[in-house]
Amino acid sequence: MVTDYFVKETNNPWRTRIYIDEEEVAEIRTREDLTYLLSAKNGDEWTLNARVHGEIRPFSMAVNQSKAQGTRDLTSGRTVLIIRDQLFLHNGKFYTLASAPEGRPLKEFLLGKRYICRLDNFPFSDLTEIDHETMSRLKRFRGAAVGELEGLGKEGHRVHLSDELEDIGLPLAASCYLLYLLYSTA
Predict the structure, then answer these.
(1) For 143, which DSSP code?
(2) Which domain holds residue 74?
(3) Closest to 4 (Cα-Cα) out of 141, 184, 165, 123
């Protein structure tokens, strides 16, 4: 299965809505502490924070589940996703945002869609092991496209994800929107 998320701003600058097939599935709200609350229609909630491992870095986001599923416990805080410098680890595999898929010329990716790529031969096993030099050369790593990012602004932001990212799809779509919103206006 492939899921298409559509993230669209509302008239309220502190709220953004997320849709799947024109049905609203979640809302992003800006909180007073400058973190974000992602609330799904099914009751799940996540806190999205630009502070990762104690520091604010470009294109980085920490996503923690705010509620234990099915309970009113707001203190669970289970980490669902860490994006650090456009790189994240999910189910033992590394992925990168805004990458160029392997097997196609780089000049095709200067404008337009951005891709989420799986880095099958990435030489690390944990995000904390990656040094600054490797992070600076991250654009050289290319992989299989597993998602697409397109558009930003009042017209909306589309996030198209393959089934291998389905279990983190909603927090990932919200994070992609926020990262590109935050760093495209900076």
Answers:
(1) B
(2) 3-184
(3) 165
The CA-based angle 15-16-21, given to 5 degrees, is 150
Q: For residues 180 and 46, what is the distance between their CA atoms, to the nearest angstrom?
A: 19
Task: List the structure tokens of 83.
Answer: 């994006």
Other CB atoms within 10 Å distance of the CB of residue 76: 12
Sequence-distant (≥ 6) Cβ neighbours of residue 104 within 8 angstroms:
none
Q: What is the pLDDT of residues 18-29, one digit of tens each?
A: 999 999 999 999
The structural domain count of the chain equals 1
pTM of the shown model? 0.86
96-119: pLDDT as tens digits = 987 777 777 666 666 668 889 998
**CB-side neighbour CA atoms (13 Å) of 95:** 23
